[in-house]
Amino acid sequence: MALRPDFSLGHSEFDEFLFASVGEEKNGSELTVLSALTRLGLDPWAEAARLSDLPEETAAHALAATIAGLPEGAWTVLDSGAIAARLVKHLPKHGGSAVQSPWGRNSGHQKTKTATAMWLICIVLAAAGLFAMLDQYAGRNSVTDQSSVSSTRP
What we know:
The chain is mainly alpha-helical. It has two domains: about 10-105; about 105-154. It is built from six helices and two strands. Strand 1 (about 20-25) and strand 2 form a beta hairpin. The longest helix is centred in the C-terminal third of the chain and has 46 residues, at about 105-150.
C-alpha cells in the first residue's frame, strides 16, 4: 500500500544535504540535518532552499549558528563551523528555488496561525461560559434577597 502524498517525503534536490550527518549524538545515534532542523522548529526543506540561495561561505556561517543552537553531541559548539562547512557542500547551487516542503508552503506559519485561532476560540468560549455562570449565580442571589426582604415585612 502506497503512502498518501501528504505522508510521503518524495525526493528533492536537497536529499543529500538533509540526510547528511551532523554528527553522533551522546546516545550514539547519528543526527541528520533533517532531524536537527526539525528539532529546532525549522522547516528543513525551506531552510535548505534558503541556504542554497546563499553564497557558500554565508550559508556555512548561517548553518553554523543553527548547529550551535543544538544540544552538544559528540561535537561541541566550537565544532559547528567545521560541521557547517562540510554540510553546505551537499547543497545544490542555484539562485532561486521553487522547491517547497512536502507539507506545503509556510506550513509552520499556517500551523501557528491555526493554533492561535483555536486558543482564541477556546478563551472566548471559556469567558462566555464564565459570564453565563456568574449571571445565573447573580440571578439566584437576587431572588433570595427579594424573598428575605419580603418575609421580614409585617
